[in-house]
Design brief:
It is built from 15 helices and no strands. It is an all-alpha fold. The termini are far apart.
């Protein structure tokens, strides 16, 4: 940078930043945006002060500008990203821009304060960068909740993350069947929770005509399908090792449970597709029909939750209650079917809507059947 010391035009340009603060902020922002590193830009500014090429009064606007220029990196990273990433990018931009505005409004007392923190200009410049960020962070901590709400308004929506792949299937413990079986059970419980969430979201999509959840449901379907495959492969590998009669029985039962959970996911997808058809065709549903669906779903969901809990705890008594509940669900499905056919016959229901209604409650009844199968697994497990 020594040659720049002799260049009068360069001196004149830097001198302008003392009088025209906004120009200095702009230059600092552009320079940082080009190199996409506020740390590097700050280093260059400090180096300029060490060579006596720039006074402290000109360095401060440049330092403030670097905090705006670094936002370019966040903006580029947020393009095409998920909601959380876009919110982080917007928060980063607002944090720095608002901070620079506040510092600009309080520039004179801010600079006077920094001058007293060190005796050399390079250290004062470094302290400016540190003080700005500390001051900014303190201000935003005070207003953290309203700032968070503002970001959520600017970037609305929900972004649910689906973690693919098994978590509890470790091939290193296949030689210890008791431990491996415990891992499979944990994976099945995870799979069960996902299948239950799929069902809940699919029904809510149907009831509320909210198609925004469809992508998340489809992601969970891919996860459930993948988990069934991984569990089956893992159990096949496990069966090659020496096991007790009880352990062999558990392996067979777990294979069946994985299939039942995958089928529950399939029924959730069926309901989701019925929701899309209902929305696309703008098919009307009476409040009575929607209320019946809600009540029936609640019963099925309660049964499914009970079956999962019985499986988790090995609770044979609860499993027997679930088996008994399946008969109640079957009878309720027949009653709802009868009522709805009567509404169709008396022209109180649009025929196309009636077909979707009957298909939906049929899918829910089949979910109950699979929950019943899981309950029977617990009962059989108790006999081993």
């Amino acid at each position: 940078m020594s040659p720049l010391r002799e260049l009068q035009a360069f001196h004149n340009l830097l001198a302008q930043f003392s009088s025209y603060t906004l120009l200095g902020i702009l230059c600092g922002a552009v320079f940082t945006a080009l190199i996409q590193s506020s740390s590097a830009a700050t280093g260059v500014i400090i180096a300029l002060t060490m060579q006596d090429l720039i006074p402290f009064s000109s360095a401060v606007p440049l330092i403030l500008g670097t905090n705006i220029g670094t936002c370019v990196t966040a903006i580029l990273a947020g393009i095409g990203a998920n909601i959380a990433a876009r919110r982080a990018a917007v928060a980063h931009v607002l944090f720095n821009v608002i901070g620079v505005i506040l510092a600009y409004l309080l520039l004179t007392p801010f600079m006077e304060l920094i001058v007293h923190t060190a005796s050399t200009v390079p250290r004062q410049v470094a302290n400016t960068h540190t003080a700005f960020n500390l001051f900014n962070t303190f201000i935003f901590l005070i207003f953290l909740n309203p700032f968070t709400k503002l970001i959520c308004r600017i970037v609305p929506g929900e972004d649910k993350k689906v973690e693919f792949g098994p978590k509890y299937l470790d091939k290193r413990i296949l030689k210890t069947p008791a431990v491996a079986i415990g891992g499979v059970k944990q994976e099945l419980l995870r799979m069960a929770g996902i299948a239950q969430e799929m069902l809940e979201e699919s029904v809510q999509v149907f009831l509320k005509n909210d198609l925004k959840q469809i992508k998340h449901i489809e992601q969970m379907e891919d996860l459930v399908d993948g988990l069934e495959k991984e569990i089956n492969i893992y159990l096949a590998d496990l069966s090659q090792h020496s096991m007790s009669k009880q352990q062999s029985g558990l392996v067979a039962g777990f294979l069946s449970a994985a299939n039942d959970l995958e089928r529950i996911g399939d029924h959730a997808i069926n309901i989701m597709q019925l929701s899309e058809l209902k929305t696309d065709e703008r098919l009307p549903f009476s409040s009575t029909a929607l209320e019946e669906i809600t009540i029936f779903y609640d019963k099925v969901d309660k049964m499914l939750a009970g079956a999962i809990r019985a499986f988790e705890q090995g609770d044979v008594r609860l499993a027997m209650e679930i088996v008994a509940e399946d008969d109640v669900i079957d009878e309720q499905e027949k009653i709802l079917r009868k009522w709805h056919i009567n509404r169709i016959n008396t022209k109180k229901c649009y025929p196309a809507s009636g077909v979707i209604y009957l298909d939906l409650i049929s899918n829910l009844e089949r979910v109950a059947d699979h929950a019943n199968n899981i309950a029977y697994l617990v009962i059989d497990e108790g006999k081993l």
